[in-house]
Structures are given as structure tokens and as C-alpha cells.
Specification:
The chain is mostly helical. The protein is 62% helix and 8% strand. The chain folds into 2 domains: 37 residues, no CATH class; 79 residues. The chain is built from 4 helices and 4 strands. The strands form 2 sheets. Strands 1-2 form a two-stranded antiparallel ribbon. A two-stranded parallel ribbon has the order 3-4. Strand 1 and strand 2 form a beta hairpin. The structure holds zinc ion. Zinc ion binds next to loops.
Length: 120
């Protein structure tokens, strides 16, 4: 809860003056915090990759997760630290490969089972 003219410090949770640029309890610097927020953005494709890896949608999500994951990782690496979400991109890639892996296993099993039932 914030009282008008005051704000709560994200570092120490003390209520301080709304105009304050530095928290006088813990020294938290609001100017540095807002600079970081402006400079860094999360790569949208990294988020999409992880979400698609989770939702799976009959392997369509897995394949899209792989594509978005690799593109996002490339963009994040090229962004020189201004883009975040590398962990999410990697999660999407891993989930994508797990999805593709289960697809391959499913195809192999279905093939084996149909071959076995033919020979009976
Ligand atoms: Zn503080």
C-alpha cells in the first residue's frame, strides 16, 4: 500500500519520500534502477519459444519453439547485453528437442507395433 507522496523501497520495503532518488535506509538508487529498465528488454521470441515448448500443440509448438529459440538466442547474443531472455530461449530449445524426441520415439514405436502385428 502506498500513501500519496511516498513510495516503498523495492530493496528494504521501507516507506520513503516519493521524490527520493536514493533510499536513505539502504541506499537503493532509483536512477540506476530506471536506467537498467530502459536499457534491457526481454526478447519476445525467447518468451514465445518457451511458451510454445510448454504448450506443445501436437509437436507444432515444439518445432516452432526450436525455430524461435535459436533465432532468439542469436538475437540476444548479437544485442550486446541489451536484450534478456537467453535462459528462456534455451528452455524453449530444450523443450523443443524433448518434443521432437518424443515424436521420433512415437513414430518408431508405432512402426514397430504395426510391423509386429503384420507378422502375426
Ligand atoms: Zn531501501
Amino acid at each position: 500500500m502506498t500513501v500519496e507522496g511516498t513510495k516503498v523501497c523495492p530493496e528494504c520495503s521501507e516507506t520513503i519520500q516519493g521524490q527520493a532518488l536514493v533510499c536513505h535506509y539502504c541506499g537503493f538508487d532509483y536512477r540506476a534502477a530506471s536506467r537498467q529498465q530502459v536499457a534491457k528488454s526481454t526478447n519476445g521470441m525467447a518468451v514465445a519459444s518457451m511458451v510454445l515448448g510448454i504448450v506443445w500443440i501436437y509437436w507444432i509448438g515444439s518445432i516452432l519453439a526450436l525455430i524461435f529459440g535459436y533465432l532468439a538466442r542469436k538475437q540476444i547474443d548479437a544485442s550486446d547485453g541489451t536484450q534478456q531472455g537467453r535462459g528462456m530461449a534455451i528452455a524453449g530449445i530444450v523443450l523443443g528437442w524433448v518434443g521432437v524426441g518424443t515424436l521420433v520415439i512415437t513414430i518408431v514405436w508405432v512402426t514397430i507395433i504395426s510391423l509386429m502385428s503384420d507378422s502375426l
